[in-house]
Specification:
The protein is built from 13 helices and 13 strands. It has 345 residues and is of the alpha/beta class.
């Protein structure tokens, strides 16, 4: 059924249809019987529950950051069966992001290229929305992660201040944090993955975190384009700063997996991060390397090229403790969490 719907949806610009579709779900959830029709019991299967970072995940399938940047669709996404939702990336000040078009489908490779540029309403607006949602959903089992970043105009030497602002504003409303220094769509951001810059940000956040009565798990999201030396630095720093985990990986600036596209077509799309099927093997390899290099001491959330239960199983076999989908949602539809959970169960 979704394959037919997808053909129609793919006739329209990706970013526009994304919000249209989610707004349709927002309306549909109030129709009697729709929730029970969409909700799948398998996503609540106790055999799939996991305790990670001291948190209880009802199942290991989460939705990656970038899908619900402003925490507008938590109820709709929970209805679809996700065990966790990572909102954001959120920045201190609102920003429009990069110029449109900035989201491109590549159906023949089940891939997407995006150069969104941290478009979001700003941390105060997101925190307010989360506060309202938390107040109305006190019995929810949904785990909410807060993916935080810096504003485009903030100099890298001052980036730690932006991360602190977001951390403090969201602290009471999210279950864990992800420090995003790996998006390719904010100029200079990936330079913050270098050890000294990263140490400044993570150490500062951990200092603030330890001052709280109940510290929150802090994770780091890394790029798949890091070389071995850079990965080793991340592993070393993660252990030194007692980081709770790593999200591997963000999108890639590489285009190696797009073998059926002519160079001109790739150039016409332009800059941006590639996600989906072409990223799968690279992401899995990085999960495996970090697991082996760290002796399994660093919990990993795997993201990149996950469409099926078998894809998820490969990430778990490589060492991941949880998985996140994003591009898979676009190509497989709103039942992706239920299908993966069913296959895993």
């Amino acid at each position: 059924m979704y394959k037919l719907i997808r053909k129609i949806l793919f006739l329209f610009p990706p970013e526009d249809i994304h919000y249209f579709a989610m707004n349709c779900f927002a309306i549909a959830k109030w129709i009697p019987g729709i929730k029970s029709l969409i909700r799948s019991p398998v996503t609540e299967n106790p055999a799939l529950s996991k305790q990670v970072f001291g948190l209880n995940f009802k199942n290991p399938v989460g939705l990656a950051a970038g899908f619900d940047k402003n925490a507008r669709y938590l109820g709709e996404l929970e209805m679809m069966g996700f065990g966790s939702i990572e909102i954001g990336t959120v920045t201190p000040k609102p920003q429009a992001g990069n110029d449109k078009p900035r989201l491109f489908r590549i159906p023949q490779h089940r891939a997407i290229i995006n150069r969104m540029g941290f478009n979001n309403e700003g941390v105060k607006a997101v925190a307010k929305r989360l506060s309202v949602w938390r107040g109305s959903n006190r019995k929810t089992k949904l785990i909410i992660g807060g993916n935080i970043g810096k504003n485009k105009l903030t100099a890298n030497e001052d980036a730690w201040k932006d991360y602190e602002i977001c951390f403090r504003e969201l602290f009471d409303y999210v279950d864990y944090f992800v420090v995003n220094v790996s998006s390719p769509n904010t100029p200079g951001l990936r330079e913050l993955q270098e050890k000294d810059s990263l140490n400044k940000i993570l150490s500062h956040l951990q200092t603030i975190n330890r001052q709280q009565s109940t510290p929150k798990p802090i994770l780091l999201k890394i790029a798949p384009d890091l070389n071995r030396t850079q990965i080793d630095d991340v592993i070393s720093l993660a252990l030194e700063t007692n980081l709770d985990g790593i999200v591997a990986t963000n999108t890639t600036i590489g285009r190696e997996g797009l073998f059926s596209l002519k160079e001109k077509a790739i150039e016409e799309i332009g800059a941006g991060g590639l996600s989906g099927e072409p990223l799968k093997d690279r992401s899995t390899a990085m999960v495996k390397y970090i697991t082996e290099k760290s002796g399994g001491k660093i919990p990993i959330i795997a993201s990149g090229g996950i469409f099926t239960a078998e894809d998820a199983r490969q990430k778990f076999e490589a060492g991941a403790v949880l998985v996140q989908v994003w591009t898979g949602f676009i190509y497989e539809g709103p039942t992706i969490a239920a299908k993966i959970c069913s296959g895993l169960a």
